[in-house]
């Protein structure tokens, strides 16, 4: 049995993808997967589905969703028997999974190993393998909840941090080309992460793709202005300056510390994207 949360929520039994049912049931499963084996309280499950306006039957609906999921993953489980995967705890429910069955835990294991190795080439390979597990945004298809629920937002942040760490190991070691596809994919999923975009820009430049790097800077600058009404921050500006002056070092790459919130551009009124 394989569980996936790094992209569309899925359960696979061998080669077959199981039908997870309706949106409420998939949200319950997604939150259990996002918590990766930790107990999720009933109140958290209710909040994830209904936010501030749960019906009187909310708890019963969650229980029924859990029951349906349990029958889905263990169809031959006797009535009232304790299953292998979905376990009732005093405070809620736990989905018992490991790195061999959940993509999130495999991702974390690979990132941890990448951070522990002293071999840059091996570290980059592990980071690339970890980032390759992402098939889209966390819990794709369950928006807008997936974009606002803290458990899902935290997973998105883990992906961005891993991509930045991958670049920080690859660029000083002259391994930009190896990491560019993973960086490009991560940057497409988080287009307003300036630190990540800066690293992609430098990786492109280090691989001799200066025109692409300049195009990327212009696109990110325009996106920041259009969507947030801000100008590029220090990391992105520093990367652009290095590109302009052909200062793409082969070693010792250091990014300046990010500053706090920048002042909005005082310019014409615009229609903001919410």
From TrEMBL:
Q: Which residues bind DNA?
A: 1-97
What UniProt keywords apply to this chain's record, in alphabetical order? Answer: DNA-binding, Transcription, Transcription regulation
Q: Which organism is it from?
A: Paractinoplanes pyxinae
Name of the protein described by the UniProt record: BTAD domain-containing putative transcriptional regulator
Tell me which family the UniProt entry assigns to this protein.
Belongs to the AfsR/DnrI/RedD regulatory family.
Residue intervals of the OmpR/PhoB-type domain: 1-97
**InterPro entries associated with the record:** AfsR-DnrI-RedD_regulator (IPR051677), BTAD (IPR005158), OmpR/PhoB-type_DNA-bd (IPR001867), Sig_transdc_resp-reg_C-effctor (IPR016032), TPR-like_helical_dom_sf (IPR011990), WH-like_DNA-bd_sf (IPR036388)
